[in-house]
Design brief:
The structure holds 2 protein chains of 2 kinds.
Chain A: H1 2-20, H2 27-49, E1 61-70, E2 75-82, H3 83-106, H4 111-130, H5 134-143, H6 145-155, H7 160-193, H8 200-203, H9 210-227, H10 236-243, H11 246-271, H12 273-299, H13 304-325, H14 328-359, H15 375-389, H16 395-410, H17 412-437, H18 460-478, H19 481-498
Antiparallel strand pairs in A: 1-2
Chain B: H1 3-8, H2 10-28, H3 32-53, E1 59-61, E2 65-67, H4 69-93, H5 101-119, H6 123-141, H7 152-183, H8 192-195, H9 203-220, H10 230-236, H11 239-264, H12 270-291, H13 297-317, H14 326-352, H15 368-371, H16 373-387, H17 393-407, H18 411-436, H19 453-471, H20 474-485
Antiparallel strand pairs in B: 1-2
The chains are: A mainly alpha, B mainly alpha.
């Protein structure tokens, strides 16, 4: 029941943080810290002491828990952790701590409610990464949505109403399609086996006729691709990211986007292998278009956060590419990109948030030469930008390289175009560094001109966060095997079970 | 009539006695509190009396009524929501510049009508119940007639409702007459035999007659295109009357429609299914689209109720598509959910309003989160449930309808539902967002002192009823499953 505890700690911690605000305005963040540390201990213990149970389905599951929930529809509270889930849980808990660090000094108003939303979002994400019942999965899928909406709508920047609404509508409507597809799948299970079931393993046995399978697969694909986000469904992301408070952006970019990719790997392809195989060329085409198009859009942005948001969409293209290549290299690449992008994008959003906190603007036209005033922050920015570009030795390189390697076996055309994205990403990244941190010093009017400096470099909390994330990226880049080993058995089992359809073309 | 049958009618008898008692109390000495207590206690006793009736069901009580698990379930819902409305009415009506007591009288009589409707299997009782309910509602809608401010709205609303409702009753009567002319019975008997087409009378005759009846019912459920009265009546009526109309009115009508459909096996006709599908799609789309630009919350909720009745119709259409009755379960579950959410949403509005000033504009709720977090929390929960977000009963209800629709393979209807829910999110969230926005004005809520405890307690109960089946719906699902088996 360790997973149940993990979710319960976050839910209870959130409720407690909200309630404690009445006692003391400082209390909520310490309660949130405790709850997150508690869940970190649980995940860490799981990672260090646990191992796959050979008796579980496909012998890959570390822990499985199962309890009756809604018997009328055969819905069960079924959760489990395998190597893939474990990696995602590590990412979630770690970035949860980073988001807390980002919010530590930034959130002063209504902090109790803020930490409540933060922890409930994370609880939803943990649920998503561990659910083995599709109804439960959808339940958590939605649970992480509302608190995120509130985070953007209450603590966001100037245009938050629009951004929050757009975020919610996109994810919710695509979520309804997902729910629709899930219910259809359960109904086909009822037709073929005599009873409703939402169980992940049971649903894999449902035999679907070609056209039906394609439609249901599309329902799942749209649901997950909107979250990822893949190219035609990405319109909500730049607004949500640029308007969210820093901690919100960290969670969105670092964790929430990964739920979409996780859904594709865990559910879409294994549940609809044939339909996914014939859809793979389109998906890889979308991925390549997304990589190039959003890299181009990123280059055209003046708002720093918006720029990073577009680069996120672009990098997520590599995940989509790797997933639909559906071979071991591609999938490993997708998983590594998810982890590494989680770290680098979260760090970059924190840097953008830190700059906005200091300069009260995100407009890159109004800043220049910051290196002379903020050397530590600028150095960190350079490190994470270079990581995002895909510098060998850091995690992103491993991820993108592996996904391109996998994709090359599946679709050469798409891979060639996607690889061009690496060039574009170098262009916009270096341009940002040059524009913001190099050159003559230029500060927005009235900022940082006070005699006492006014423009403080990194504080202790920030330094700690950046340092940890940098170390994480180095670890991923220098010794990726420690992560790849966890996911390898899971991905191999998935490939075996779907008969490695691979991408055509 | 045997003793058993009298006991089965006990809830209705208790409500009748309460009405008489209420009237006598007014004749002896007028006092608002006494009238309210009498009617609340009466409704509570009626609820308790169900424990006597329950073991004796199912039985035909005269050829006119049938008391079974289905009717008992809806009796509980009707009595429960009437009780909640009664208790919400007291603080609201306290500062009315008129006599308050007759409101409870009207409310009790209309509950009686609703109780008759949910257990009727005969056109006579169905019509009698419908008219009893409606006639009292005209009075309730126009109740604050002598209020100095905005006095014209209740009158306008009531007249509109009266005229249109009378027309729709005419449709129902005409349909009944046509059916009676051929079958010679007013019982909801097997119309499907006629629908199959006889030698003498073509099937279209029965289709036409049934559609006339359904039109009248659709009016009461405010389905498009019979919805035009809804926003004006909701807006003009005092809040307790609005919440009564939105809950008990819809509940009794939907239960009656469901019983009518399942007993008469109307849905075996493809034509009727076709017409109902069009009505459902239009209700979902128009209701949601029209709600988008409303800034008066009563009007907004009225349009959203049109959409919700459309969702309900989706489940109703799948009623006998297969042997298993997922459709009927979905309808019962969704109605329960709808009643809880509507009572909660209107309840919050009633708590912050009184008869001197109704706070029904979206601007009144700006910054509610920072000013009264508790009310804002309840309101948010109700709105999210209406929007069908998990952790609430509304989500499970919508899931149920999805499952029923998939079972019946009604793909177009489900698509309309997905689109409609997407649009719906927008206006529900707009209210939530306004509640989160910073407080800009100071508009003190009515201070009711100790009187406030009761409505707040009720809101807490409703919140529990909203969240508990949302997280653990198993119990309610099992109940609903046994209920529809008696259909």
């Amino acid at each position: 029941m360790i997973v149940g505890w993990l979710i319960a700690i976050l839910f209870l911690g959130g409720a407690l943080a909200w309630a404690s605000e009445a006692l003391d305005a400082q209390l909520p963040k310490f309660i949130a810290l405790l709850a997150l540390l508690g869940s970190a201990v649980l995940v860490g213990w799981l990672a260090l002491s646990g191992q796959a149970n050979p008796l579980s389905p496909q012998g890959q599951w570390w822990v499985l828990a199962d309890a009756n929930w809604i018997p009328r529809f055969g819905i069960r509270f079924a959760v489990g952790v395998d190597g893939l889930s474990l990696l995602m849980l590590l990412l979630t808990v770690f970035l949860g701590l980073m988001a807390l660090g980002a919010a530590w000094h930034e959130i002063r108003e209504r902090s109790g409610f803020f930490y409540f939303n933060l922890l409930w979002t994370l609880a939803g994400v943990v649920g998503v990464f561990t659910s083995l019942d599709l109804f439960l999965f959808f339940f958590f899928w939605e649970v992480m949505l509302i608190p995120m909406y509130l985070i953007i709508a209450i603590w966001g920047h100037e245009n938050r109403a629009y951004a929050a609404m757009k975020f919610f509508l996109f994810t919710q409507v695509s979520g309804l399609l997902l729910l629709f597809a899930i219910v259809c799948l359960a109904w086909f299970h009822a037709q073929q086996f005599g009873a409703f079931s939402f169980d992940y393993f049971a649903l894999q046995d449902v035999v679907l006729e070609g056209r039906v399978q394609t439609w249901l697969m599309l329902g799942f694909f749209v649901g997950f691709a909107t979250k990822l986000p893949a190219f035609p469904f990405h319109a909500w992301l730049p607004d949500a990211h640029s308007q969210a408070p820093t901690a919100g952006s960290v969670l969105l970019a670092g964790v929430l986007l990964k739920t979409g990719a996780y859904g594709l790997i865990r559910f879409t392809v294994p549940l609809f292998p044939e339909a996914s195989a014939s859809f793979a060329p389109f998906a890889m085409g979308l991925a390549a278009v997304g990589i190039l198009y959003c890299a181009k859009l990123a280059f055209a942005q003046q708002d720093l956060k918006r720029l990073i948001a577009y680069t996120s969409v672009s990098h997520m293209g590599f995940v989509l590419l790797g997933v639909y290549a559906w071979n071991l290299y591609g999938l490993q690449g997708a998983v590594m990109t998810m982890l590494a992008h989680g770290f680098s994008a979260a760090a970059l959003f924190m840097i953008a948030g830190g700059l906005q906190h200091r300069l009260h603007t995100r407009d890159m036209q109004r800043m220049s030469g910051l290196w002379s005033r903020l050397p530590m922050l600028s150095a960190m920015a350079l490190f994470f930008t270079v990581a995002a570009v895909g510098m060998p030795g850091l995690g992103n390189f491993i991820g993108e390289f592996l996904s391109l390697l996998g994709a090359f076996q599946a679709s050469r055309v798409a891979t060639v175009f996607a690889a061009l994205g690496l060039v574009l990403s170098a262009v916009y990244s270096l341009w940002v560094i040059q524009k913001v941190f190099h050159g003559p010093l230029l500060l927005p009017a009235g900022q940082g001109r006070e005699p006492d400096g006014g423009l403080a470099d990194l504080g202790t909390v920030e330094l700690l966060c950046y340092g940890l994330m940098a170390l994480g990226l180095l670890w991923m880049g220098l010794y990726p095997q420690s992560f790849l080993a966890h996911s390898a058995s899971v991905l191999e089992a998935l490939l075996q079970q779907t008969g490695t359809p691979g991408g055509g073309g | 009539m045997s003793m058993d049958q009298l006991l089965l009618l006990l809830p209705a008898l208790v409500v009748t006695a309460t009405t008489v008692l209420c009237m006598l109390a007014v004749a002896i000495h007028r006092r608002h509190l006494v009238s309210c207590v009498i009617s609340a206690v009466g409704l509570l006793l009626a609820l308790l009396s169900l424990s006597v009736a329950m073991p004796l069901a199912p039985q035909e009580v005269t050829p006119l009524l049938r008391v079974d698990a289905f009717s008992l379930f809806f009796t509980v819902l009707v009595l429960g929501s009437a009780l909640v409305v009664t208790l919400f009415s007291y603080p609201y009506l306290c500062n009315l510049e008129d006599q308050q007591d007759e409101f409870y009288l009207l409310l009790n009589i209309s509950v009686l009508g609703a109780l008759v409707m949910v257990s009727s299997t005969h056109f006579l009782t169905a019509f009698l119940g419908m008219e009893t309910l409606s006639v009292c509602l005209y009075g309730m809608v126009a109740y604050p007639l002598h209020r100095s401010r905005t006095a014209q709205y209740p009158m306008e609303a009531s007249l509109k409702y009266l005229v249109l409702s009378a027309v729709s009753s005419g449709f129902v009567l005409f349909g009944m007459a046509l059916l009676y002319a051929q079958s010679g019975t007013l019982h909801f008997t097997d119309i499907s035999a006629g629908l199959a087409g006889g030698a003498l009378v073509p099937a279209s005759y029965y289709v036409l007659a049934s559609l006339l009846i359904i039109m009248g019912f659709a009016f009461k459920l405010s389905l498009v295109p019979f919805h035009l009265w809804t926003p004006d009546v909701y807006e003009g009526a005092p809040l307790p009357a609005t919440s009564f109309l939105a809950t008990v009115g819809k509940l009794a009508m939907a239960a009656l429609l469901m019983r009518f459909m399942s007993v008469s096996e109307l849905l075996s006709s493809a034509d009727i299914r076709y017409v109902l599908s069009i009505i459902a799609v239009f209700s979902i789309l128009f209701g949601n689209l029209l709600a988008l630009r409303q800034s008066n919350l009563k009007r907004l909720l009225s349009y959203s109720s049109i959409a919700h009745m459309g969702y309900l119709l989706v489940a109703l259409i799948t009623l006998n598509a297969t042997g298993q009755s997922l459709g009927a379960e979905a309808v019962s579950f969704y109605l329960t959910a709808y009643v809880v959410m509507s009572l909660g949403a209107f309840g919050v509005m009633t708590v912050v309003s009184d008869s001197a000033q109704e706070r029904d504009h979206i601007g009144h709720y700006q910054g509610l989160f920072w000013r009264n977090p508790w009310l804002a929390l309840v309101f948010t929960a109700m709105l999210l449930s209406l929007a069908g977000i998990p952790l609430t009963i509304g989500f499970v209800g919508k899931f149920y309808i999805f499952a029923a629709g998939v079972q019946g393979a009604e793909w177009m209807l489900l698509l309309a539902m997905v689109v409609g829910s997407g649009i719906g999110l927008f206006y529900y969230l707009r209210i939530v967002y306004r509640m989160l926005a910073p407080l800009e004005h100071h508009d003190p809520f009515p201070e009711a002192g100790l009187r406030e405890l009761l409505p707040h307690g009720l809101l807490l109960c409703l919140l529990v009823l909203l969240v508990l089946p949302g997280v653990l719906p198993g119990g309610l699902m099992a109940l609903v499953e046994t209920v529809v088996r008696s259909l």
